[in-house]
Design a protein that fits this description.
single chain, about 180 residues, mainly alpha, Non-ribosomal Peptide Synthetase Peptidyl Carrier Protein, Chain A, two-stranded antiparallel sheet, 2 strands, about 75% helix
Length: about 180
């Protein structure tokens, strides 16, 4: 039971419910003003223009005491139109004077999965393009180090590259003799 009372208090305390209650009370008071305006001001003018007819007295007899009160219905339509016109004016004025509330700052939207995928592909391509350049830079750095290492090595005995014509001729004749014997 306490929970039900608590929920009812929360419901009543809402801003929309209070606004609605105030609107109903003011609307009830406003109805008396509109009825007086229609019955005492507008309808006599309309009746004078049409030919002095009193709209509240217009009725269609059905037989006996039963009547269709067309005049009262016409007055209700005029009442409705006047109330609608006044409320339209009130709402329009309220919208004009209504202060604009500051809009909350919008965070940039998260990129979609497709955009994330494209970004990762782009990053991989950039890495691949940078790797050959990095290898070239490393090779250039390594070349002076190799040169320094070669200079630091002790000099080896140079191989004898010079053969005399006689020794070269002897070698060729030996190989030809072996191939002919077989």
């Amino acid at each position: 039971m306490k929970q039900l009372i608590k929920e009812f208090k929360e419901f009543i305390a809402r801003g929309n419910v209070l606004d609605l209650a105030i609107g109903v009370v003011i609307g009830g008071a406003f109805q008396a003003i509109v009825n007086s305006l229609v019955n005492d001001v507008i309808m006599p003018i309309v009746g004078a223009i049409i030919g002095g007819l009193d709209f509240s007295a217009i009725a269609i007899p059905l037989g006996g005491d039963a009547m269709i009160m067309i005049g009262s219905f016409l007055q209700a339509i005029v009442n409705f139109l006047i109330v609608a016109l006044v409320l339209f004016g009130v709402v329009k004025a309220m919208n004009r004077f209504k202060r604009e509330e500051p809009k909350p700052e919008e965070k940039p939207a998260e990129p979609s999965e497709e955009v994330k995928l494209l970004q990762s592909i782009n990053n991989e391509i950039k890495k691949l393009n940078k790797e050959p350049e990095a290898k070239k830079v490393e090779a250039k750095k390594a070349e002076p180090a190799k040169a320094v290492a070669k200079e630091a090595e002790p000099a080896k005995a140079a191989p004898k590259k010079t053969e005399t014509k006689k020794t070269a001729a002897k070698k060729t004749t030996k190989t030809t003799k072996k191939s002919t014997k077989k």
